Amino acid sequence: EIVMTQSPATLSVSPGERATLSCRASQSVSSNLAWFQQKPGQAPRLLIYGASTRATGIPARFSGSGSGTEFTLTISSLQSEDFAVYYCRQSNNWPPGPLTFGGGTKVEIK
Amino acid sequence: QLQLQESGPGLVKPSETLSLICTVSGGSISSSSNSWGWIRQPPGKGLEWIGSFFYSGGTYYNPSLKSRVTIFVDTSKNQFSLKLSSVTAADTAVYYCAHKGDFWGQGTLVTVSS
Questions:
Q1: Chain A CA closest to residue B60
Q2: Cis ω on the peptide bond leading into residue A96 (within 30° of 0)?
Q3: Which of A33, A35, A99, A100 would best serve as a mutation to test chain B binding (most B beta carbons within 10 A)?
């Protein structure tokens, strides 16, 4: 099973600042990497797929990069609605391999 | 617009079987390009993929749950279902159904307790 590790666990950022979140895979997942945003009491929402393609309706301040084992989600200028938990997910060899998620990064107001 | 809605008991006793239904609207469950599945999230914790089926063929499960999980489809009702047997407190979670692993229902909390 491919293990996904996200860092940091918590990121304290002021509104308007840039946030950089990291996700590392235990083996190469090529570009089969997605990012999700989850707010309290809500289901996760797809932000980025294919490592760098924004999903429909996602603002341009969200960008993804990376391939292989190292990935980054950047939020260029944090808005109040961006404070949430972010998860990465790999889908390499799915199926039959499993989908696996990182443990999440909580972006909180500094 | 695609919508997914989970339904089922919110409380299940230990050792019994958890059963949930996902009703799909705004799209056909029987489209050959579609996959449908389940993901869960224990309270305050991260996300765990349970399993998915591909209408073009094949149902796949998380190896850690495979012995206890069944996902099956009712195309006449545009629904798919999850059964998880021999539940314990560790199976307490919000259960989400999802389309292609990307678009999720709102989730339903299932608590395992006597």
A1: A96
A2: yes
A3: A99
Give the tens place of pLDDT for each residue, A58-110: 999 999 999 999 999 999 999 999 999 999 999 998 998 999 999 999 999 99
B96 with A43: Cβ contact below 8 A: yes
Instruction: Give the DSSP per-residue string, chain B.
Output: --EEEEES-SEE-TTS-EEEEEEEESS-TT-TT-EEEEEEE-TTS--EEEEEEETTS-EEE-TTTGGGEEEEEETTTTEEEEEE-S--GGG-EEEEEEETTTEE---EEEEE--
Which of B60, B63, B102 lies nearest to residue A95, judging by beta carbons?
A: B60
Q: Which H/E stretch holds residue A65?
A: strand A62-67
Report how far residue B108's alpha carbon sits from residue B94's, in angstroms, rounded to the nearest whole number: 5
**Nearest chain B residue (CA) to A33:** B102
Tokens of A45: 């929402």
- Find how far residue B18's CA is from the centre of its chain: 10
pLDDT digits (tens, 9 = 90+) for A28-55: 999 999 999 999 999 999 999 999 999 9
User: Is A1 in Cβ contact with B102 (below 8 Å)?
Assistant: no
Helix (H, G, I), strand (E, B) or coil at A48: strand
CB contact under 8 A, B101 and A87: no
